[in-house]
């Protein structure tokens, strides 16, 4: 499969620069179709097509994970807007998995992500950070991959991707218990490497 790069301009007012997002590999025909039907900025920024609930504000203090950027995201399975920081407790390592609905390699890695969370989720917080395409396609991705039970969120603004300088998907990023990024890589989901980076082995 041939790799492909595309440029997406995030239309959030706070972001003045464009983010280059390299999509995962596609067949030539699929690549051509996607180029002609590339989502507009408006499609990316507007995540909801129906009513969306808003979770209560998270408790502040030591329980809030300030290692994460202060960004509101949508919990895809619940269609619920929530502060990203409220989804991960402070003082616990995190696996951040960056994905996009159209990404073939993301779909291929999804079973590994599920298995990892089932085995190690009590020791490391697993968060899937989605962007690109639209939230309806994100819901389809969860249904297709069986990831509805994971904490899969949608960042319409792309701020999390900008914050961690993520330009490709799937990208694995490990944050240790002290809140520091210890390792980041593109593709090749490796449970042992994740545990080592999180200092759990």
Can you describe this structure?
Residues 1-23 and 25-62 have low confidence and may be disordered. The radius of gyration is 16 Å and the shape is globular. The protein has helices at residues 28-36, 41-45, 104-120, 135-145, 159-163, 191-197; strands at residues 6-8, 19-21, 53-54, 72-75, 80-83, 94-99, 125-130, 152-154, 171-175, 181-186. It has a single domain (41-197), classed as Glutaredoxin (3-Layer(aba) Sandwich). It is built from six helices and ten strands. The protein is α/β, with parallel strands linked by helices.
CATH architectural name? 3-Layer(aba) Sandwich
Indicate the overall shape. globular
Distance between the termini: 35 Å
> How many beta-strand segments?
10
Strand portion? 15-25%
Number of domains: 1
Into which percent range does the helicity of residues fall?
Answer: 25-40%
CATH topology: Glutaredoxin
**Numbering strands along the chain, what is their spatial order in the largest sheet?**
3-5-4-8-7-6-9-10
Radius of gyration: 16 Å
Number of distinct helices: 6
- SSE arrangement, N to C: EEHHEEEEHEHEHEEH
Q: Quickly name the level 1 CATH class.
A: Alpha Beta
Stretches where pLDDT falls below 50 for ≥5 residues? 1-23, 25-62
Q: Taking all residues together, what is the mean pLDDT?
A: 76
Largest sheet: 8 strands, mixed
- The name of the CATH superfamily reads Glutaredoxin
How does the helix and strand content classify structurally? alpha/beta
